[in-house]
Fold this sequence. Notes:
single chain, 158 residues, mainly beta, Jelly Rolls, 7-stranded antiparallel β-sheet, 5-stranded antiparallel β-sheet
Amino acid sequence: MAYKISPIPHANILSTQTQNYTGLTSGQTIHYNTIFDINSGITLTENSKINFQSPGDYLFSVTAIICQSATNNVYYNIWYQKNGIDIPNSNLRLISPTFGNEYLMTNTIILDVNVNDNVILRWQSSSANGRLFATTGLTNPIRPDVASVKIMINKMSE
């Protein structure tokens, strides 16, 4: 059976690195270091900016593993920006009640994009100990690594 890569614009981008929160008063940009699959008019620049050359409605789905190394009751926010402007009501907030535990955040949205639009993800933690947590080297049995952040993008319509 032969498979063909879809001509429909799509992307699967992730980070295999733990990202530590560095500031308490502003959000910071989520960065990616691995392009698993990217196609048909979607590009990644600056390791964070997702650019579009095909207009339409796109489904964005992000998952992130959060974990703080100290402090209880830390909150995390992840939201979208388009062309450098926060997208209203795109924020997802989660409170991590205990340190050392890992939690999964997911945030899904449909965005209308035009040619040359770009989208980035931002995040914020109430603690300098907040992090987007990657896990590598899983053994007994050997398993794939866990990315700190994954974003999947699929064009839905014109």
